[in-house]
């Protein structure tokens, strides 16, 4: 049987190497983050020991993923997606609350976060839809369908009030872009985010409206003066103006208090260093005090005195920055960039659109987590509780990231067996 | 059509990585600001516990105050070279206890290796003095000062209540976010009822420490520090001398004494017997003492004046009489023969008017009164007629404050019970009932249930000739010195004032020549009272006495309830009259009566 053949030679060992390097560093840094005299790396009652357990479970999962027939992932993509949505729906009903967000489902003594696994399910479902014969990204109907696939989990996770994780799903826009969607939407979305933050910084919104108008006129004047383009640009500008107007409303009426505080802390962390600015200030102090070479393994002081909150989860990068300095940061960022570029390389060498779109989905999710997590720890982005892949402590996220990556590697190992239908 | 998109995405990824490295380079390598901050960074928040409000008596005498007490906190991550033998020596604890302390500490919800966690609580002043000089031998251990409750006299335990560490259960339910584990909270009595006023507001000081744990002054020159705000003081209406005397008289008895100033509703003394020393439930030995007190077979934690629901007995005849007068079914001159065939009676009398019937507590008289009340003959059916009569009766009786909680400023007050048609429907399971089924309520037996505070309030209502203020302990809160608003409202009964004069006359006759003549009569003060003897088979009867004095412009109204003490004219009337004497004259001049009371021991 062909399925029984040894595929280890066809697995992408570059990616596996990067993966192993990242989880190992993650595990060691979790140990450093919670370290105290006499703590063992293997003590199952503390985070490092538990993380090791999750790593072992990941290993078993990887074996499973590789053994399962590669056609399974495409064939059952929608079913998996359906199950994920169902679990998300159950969370607000029977879930439990951890740290202000209700996003856990308890199963016996274990708790899982369905929102983490929904990332895998959504990536598969979107890839499958994009891979269907006759799909065209510039077709309005197709476009609406993939958007619906993306937005369903977002809506359900919004119900759990876990806005950070909900935002992650927006990263699938990168996949749509790669598959031919007009960049217009991404540009408007990006501009909206910039405007959103500018609105927080500028007290009088009139200046922002004037700014938008000036940019609009300049762009129309210097570009091709076609009617369609002018209408599109004007529509975009009106949208931006609406964003400006709605920011105030959104901040004060829609966002829950702890998100409001995080936004305010981004703009002026010194306004209340003991209150909502605490996380960002402490995180920057920890990283900043690391210097060029760092304070050395287990020698960090800031991350050990509970100054940095959630130090083994969302703020794990503080430990890296403090103990390994800029050199260590360079290494971690370098590994991530290398992995991301490798995933895109793998995606591009796929022979069918399903696998390629899935590859881009994996890359987008990793990229979003990587970018937003590090940006928030160094104070470039509001504090949004999303983990740094492979580093942050947590079973659900580690398993989900592992599944994401290894399903791609499995598909990649069989890429020569599939019929070309790009 | 999608050429170049892959490259754009790749460029963005590299660009983001590059931006991060540049940003990191500026904060890690180029700027010293963060490294400096890190050295002085350690901001250590320190809680400053507020003083709990004081509690005073009506003359400004202190009842409850605070004494300093010291907790030892530990930051486990700072503990180095810990010498446990030396520690045990200094703190005078055994190795077993030390091990237990560590275990308890780690079980706390807020436990962290890096934050101060409570290790030993409530060191006394003496212990603290001994330990203080040696504390520097143990790195990582700190002193946290706070206060504990102390009492000037071992009195008033149930009214004051006690303060202790907030329970886990309570903490989870608390949505205000005010309390943290290890905080103290009023658990019963005034301490619980006025918790909000008494507790004050905690302060917070932010101290800077360097990474070695050495203090470097206050963070940002104290800009973020908040001072603790002490709780508000409470002035009670309690007369501490009278209270102590009352407890002295109640020694060896189960029951209650409630004395009220009728013109204000302020409680002058509130005794629940048997009682305990409030100092036992404060400070270091709280746990073991609490177990002992709460498992005592005499139930000293049961606050009888509020929680014990008794049948009122003959004192109820006063309410009965006024209700009948108001309904016009009798006049003060109405005579009813003492026919002892249905209800038995006592003493030599045969055909009294209302005043004589009250003075001699004639049972058949009030059986007859209630018959007239309930069976007015409004309809022919005796069942329906009783129902109509009982409804009217019920309304009047409830207007005296019986049958529902008065609303005193203490927790766990009970309301007692006044029978209504609905109650009898339930008791008889839908079968019909009429006067002959329920007549025992005529003399305060049967289904009636009254708590002692309602009895005293009833005496105060008669003293006021028709209205009462809700009895309350606290007459002044904090600086503006006012009680809660609801305690300055008059509550009127449904009885006209002229009928109260009839009741007052009769109550004077009880003391001057009736069932309470010998023990309750005072030389220069006109006392009005009523005895009650409540059946408690097979045990001895409960003794009840309500009274107020002087007759004109009354200064004190009182109810005394002594369990298992026999006729109301004896122990209960003696105690009440001694209390009146003590309060109005400042001393008692009847050593024989006092001796009689002190000798009486009715605990079983």
Describe the structure.
The complex is a heterodimer of chains A (422) and B (604). Chain A is mainly alpha-helical and 422 residues long. Chain A has one domain (2-415). Helix content of chain A is 66%, strand content 3%. Chain A is built from 16 helices and three strands. Chain A has helices spanning 13-34, 47-67, 71-75, 77-94, 114-131, 140-159, 163-168, 173-178, 184-201, 205-222, 227-254, 257-267, 278-288, 316-348, 353-377, 395-413, and strands spanning 96-98, 101-107, 110-112. In chain A, strand 2 and strand 3 (110-112) form a beta hairpin. The longest helix of chain A has 33 residues, at 316-348. The two termini of chain A are 27 Å apart. Chain B is of the alpha+beta class. Chain B has 23 helices and 20 strands. The model of chain B has no long low-confidence stretch (mean pLDDT 87). Chains A and B meet through helix 8, helix 13, helix 14 and helix 15 of A and helix 1 and helix 2 of B.
> Considering DSSP H and I runs of 4 or more, what fraction of the residues of chain B is helical?
25-40%
Question: Which residues of chain A form runs of ≥5 with pLDDT under 50?
Answer: none
Assembly type of the shown chains?
heterodimer
Overall 3D geometry of chain A?
globular
Q: Into which percent range does the helicity of residues of chain A fall?
A: 55-70%
The tally of domains of chain B stands at 2
Identify the notable features of this structure and list them briefly.
heterodimer, A: 422 residues, mainly alpha, three-stranded antiparallel β-sheet, 16 helices, 3 strands, B: 604 residues, alpha+beta, Penicillin-binding protein 2a (Domain 2), Beta-lactamase, 2 domains, six-stranded mixed β-sheet, five-stranded antiparallel β-sheet, 23 helices, 37% helix, elongated
């Amino acid at each position: 049987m062909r399925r029984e053949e040894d595929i280890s030679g066809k697995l992408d060992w570059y990616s596996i190497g990067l993966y192993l390097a990242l989880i190992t560093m993650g595990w060691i840094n979790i140990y450093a983050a919670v370290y105290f005299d006499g703590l063992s790396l293997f003590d199952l009652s503390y985070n490092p020991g538990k993380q090791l357990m999750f790593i072992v479970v990941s290993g078993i999962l990887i074996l499973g993923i590789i053994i399962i027939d590669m056609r399974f992932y495409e064939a059952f993509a929608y079913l998996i997606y359906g199950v994920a949505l169902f679990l998300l729906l159950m969370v607000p009903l029977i879930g439990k609350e951890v740290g202000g967000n209700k996003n856990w489902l308890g199963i016996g003594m274990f708790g899982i976060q369905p929102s983490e696994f929904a990332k895998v399910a959504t990536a598969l479902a979107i890839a499958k839809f994009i891979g269907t014969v006759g799909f065209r990204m510039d077709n309005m109907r197709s476009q609406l369908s993939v958007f619906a696939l993306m937005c369903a989990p977002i809506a359900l996770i919004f119900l759990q009030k876990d806005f950070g994780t909900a935002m992650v799903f927006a990263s699938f826009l990168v996949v749509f872009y790669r598959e031919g969607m007009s960049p217009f939407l991404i540009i408007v979305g990006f501009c909206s985010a910039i405007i959103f933050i500018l609105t927080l910084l500028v007290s009088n919104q009139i200046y922002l409206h004037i700014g938008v108008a000036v940019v609009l006129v300049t762009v129309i004047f210097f570009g091709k003066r076609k009617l369609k383009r002018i209408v599109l640009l004007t529509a975009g500008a009106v949208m931006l103006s609406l964003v400006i107007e709605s920011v105030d409303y959104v901040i004060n009426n829609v966002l829950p208090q702890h998100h409001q505080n995080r936004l305010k802390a981004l703009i002026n962390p010194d306004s209340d260093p003991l209150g909502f600015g605490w996380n960002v200030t402490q995180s920057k102090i920890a990283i900043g005090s690391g210097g060029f070479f760092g304070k050395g393994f287990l020698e960090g002081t800031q991350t050990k005195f509970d100054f940095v909150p959630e130090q083994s989860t969302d703020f794990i990068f503080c430990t890296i920055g403090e103990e390994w300095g800029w050199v260590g940061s360079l290494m971690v960022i370098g590994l991530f960039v290398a992995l991301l570029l490798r995933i895109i390389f793998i995606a591009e060498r796929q022979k069918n659109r399903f696998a390629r779109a899935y590859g881009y989905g994996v890359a987008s999710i990793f990229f979003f987590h990587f970018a937003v997590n590090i940006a928030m720890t160094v104070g470039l982005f509001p504090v949004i509780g999303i983990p740094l892949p492979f580093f942050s402590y947590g079973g659900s996220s580690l398993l989900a990231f592992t599944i994401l990556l290894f399903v791609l590697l499995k598909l990649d190992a069989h890429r020569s067996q599939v019929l070309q239908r790009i | 059509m999608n050429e170049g998109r892959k490259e754009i995405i790749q460029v963005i990824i590299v660009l983001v990585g590059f931006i991060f490295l540049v940003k990191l380079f500026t904060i890690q390598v180029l700027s010293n600001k963060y490294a400096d901050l890190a050295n002085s960074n350690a901001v250590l928040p320190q809680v400053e516990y507020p003083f709990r409000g004081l509690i005073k008596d009506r003359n400004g005498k202190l009842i409850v105050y605070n004494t300093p007490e010291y907790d030892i906190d530990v930051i486990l991550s700072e503990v180095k070279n810990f010498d446990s033998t030396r520690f045990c020596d200094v703190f005078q604890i055994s190795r077993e206890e030390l091990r237990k302390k560590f275990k308890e500490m780690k079980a706390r919800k807020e436990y962290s290796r890096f934050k101060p966690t409570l290790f030993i609580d409530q060191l006394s002043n003496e212990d603290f003095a001994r330990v203080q000089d040696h504390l520097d031998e143990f790195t990582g251990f700190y002193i946290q000062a706070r206060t504990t409750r102390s009492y000037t006299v071992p009195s008033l335990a149930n009214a004051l209540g006690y303060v202790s560490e907030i329970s886990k259960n309570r903490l989870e339910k608390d949505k205000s976010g005010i309390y943290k584990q290890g905080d103290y909270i009023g658990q019963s009595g005034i301490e619980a009822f006025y918790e909000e006023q008494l507790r004050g507001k905690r302060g917070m000081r932010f101290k800077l420490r360097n990474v070695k744990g050495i203090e470097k002054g206050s963070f940002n020159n104290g800009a973020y520090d908040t001072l603790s705000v002490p709780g508000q003081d409470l002035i009670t209406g309690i007369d501490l001398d009278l209270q102590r005397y009352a407890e002295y008289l109640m020694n060896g008895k189960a029951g209650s004494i409630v004395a009220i100033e009728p013109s204000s509703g302020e409680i002058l003394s509130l005794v629940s017997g048997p009682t305990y020393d409030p100092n036992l439930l404060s400070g270091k030995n709280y746990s073991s003492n609490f177990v002992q007190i709460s498992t005592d077979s005499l139930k000293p934690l049961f606050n009888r004046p509020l929680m014990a629901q008794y049948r009122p007995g003959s004192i109820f005849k006063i309410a009965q009489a006024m209700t009948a007068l108001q309904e016009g079914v009798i006049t003060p001159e109405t005579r009813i023969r003492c026919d002892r065939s249905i209800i038995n009676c006592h003493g030599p009398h045969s055909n009294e008017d209302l005043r004589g019937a009250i003075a001699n507590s004639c049972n058949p008289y009030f059986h007859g009164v209630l018959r007239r009340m309930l069976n007015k003959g409004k309809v022919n059916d005796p069942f329906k007629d009783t129902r109509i009569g009982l409804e009217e009766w019920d309304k009047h009786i409830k207007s005296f404050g019986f049958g529902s909680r008065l609303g005193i400023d203490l927790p766990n007050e009970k309301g007692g019970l006044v029978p209504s048609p609905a109650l009898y429907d339930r008791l008889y399971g839908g079968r019909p009932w009429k006067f002959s089924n329920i007549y025992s309520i005529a003399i305060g037996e049967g289904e009636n249930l009254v708590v002692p505070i309602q009895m005293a309030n009833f005496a105060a209502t008669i003293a006021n000739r028709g209205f009462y203020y809700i009895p309350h302990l606290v007459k002044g809160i904090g600086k503006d010195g006012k009680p809660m608003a609801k305690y300055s409202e008059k509550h009127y009964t449904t009885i006209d004032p002229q009928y109260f004069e009839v009741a007052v006359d009769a109550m004077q006759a009880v003391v001057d020549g009736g069932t309470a003549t010998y023990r309750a009569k005072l030389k220069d003060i006109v006392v009005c009272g009523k005895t009650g003897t409540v059946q408690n088979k097979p045990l001895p009867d409960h003794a009840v006495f309500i009274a107020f004095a002087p007759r004109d412009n009354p200064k004190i109204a009182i109810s005394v309830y002594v369990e298992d003490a026999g006729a109301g004219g004896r122990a209960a009337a003696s105690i009440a009259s001694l209390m009146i004497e003590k309060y109005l004259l400042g001393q008692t001049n009847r050593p024989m009566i006092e001796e009689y009371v002190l000798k009486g021991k009715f605990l079983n």
